[in-house]
């Protein structure tokens, strides 16, 4: 364990302040991700230690620490990157780990450093005590991956969520229609029953989901399990460096403010409202909804940047009515899905029917 630091262990600035601080010092930054499964006796102590020195180095981003390991998506000032790696590698189980460096860098990928202690570094719904999580599948480098996916005995599976593969995926990949990794694991298993002897090749953004999935699928009887080393991020880098054929079409969805990296020039997604080709995600302008969806510029203008007519209407209500709605029992916990129909819409419709006269009277004043 590294030496402790007597300094702040949490970020106390708001988003606007943090953005101004970045603008005042617009030095180049490196966007990078890494993960490592390991047994950590005291996740909180490691979390505090990491925050102390990373904060001093100007690291921004999101890191999860659990008793099973560490999962990080961050940006580091370019001038500090080598010192950052040196310091990170002082942690025994992180020494020499692969760093997945982004294809595209952005000053505003992340605005603050958040390091959280979680039960798991990726929510998978698995009981790790029931199988050997270290018995993972074979890692494939980009060239090996390209060769194996051409084998007719290979099944290629995208282990990401629907809103990720919607904008980009590998050719001929199976894309489970799921909202979470937890949903994908049993669905893929059931769909592939009877094909246990085929080559099961998986990929995800940076490799972390496939790491656990490969161990699980070996446990439940799949004989030849493989995973793309470093995920799509590392694949795109190696394709460019080594002049390989790029089998990925579209964009790679990323979990920061960039939202995506362009891997190829194809646009494979469509606006959720008019079906025209478009592959840029946005959040519904109605903060009570905040649905992540795909909306082209024309529909954004037409719909006031909202995902539905209900959200558009809600934004025209007086603030007191908006506050009344948000304080209702159905709005206590907002757990809206990404890229699907807004949960807000169904709740709002019920509330509106109950308050129909008041709502229509208020809206008549804005027309």
Major β-sheet profile: 5 strands, mixed
Low-confidence stretches: 1-6, 332-336
Q: Helix amount, in percent?
A: 25-40%
Give the mean pLDDT: 91
Structural class, from helix and strand content?
alpha/beta
Oligomer: single chain
Order of adjacent strands in the largest pleated sheet: 4-1-3-2-5
N- to C-terminal separation? 64 Å
Whole-number radius of gyration? Answer: 23 Å
- Identify the CATH homologous superfamily of the largest domain: Rhodanese-like domain
Count up the helices.
13
CATH C-level category of the largest domain: Alpha Beta
Number of strands: 14
Note the overall shape: globular
Explain what you see.
With 367 residues, the protein is an alpha/beta fold. The chain folds into three domains: 15-117, Alpha-Beta Plaits; 128-250, 3-Layer(aba) Sandwich (Oxidized Rhodanese, domain 1), CATH 3.40.250; 281-364, no CATH class. 33% of the residues lie in helices and 19% in strands. It contains 13 helices and 14 strands. A five-stranded mixed β-sheet has the order 4-1-3-2-5. A four-stranded parallel β-sheet has the order 6-10-9-7. It has a three-stranded antiparallel β-sheet with strand order 8-11-12. Strand 11 and strand 12 form a beta hairpin. The model is unreliable at 1-6 and 332-336 (pLDDT under 50).
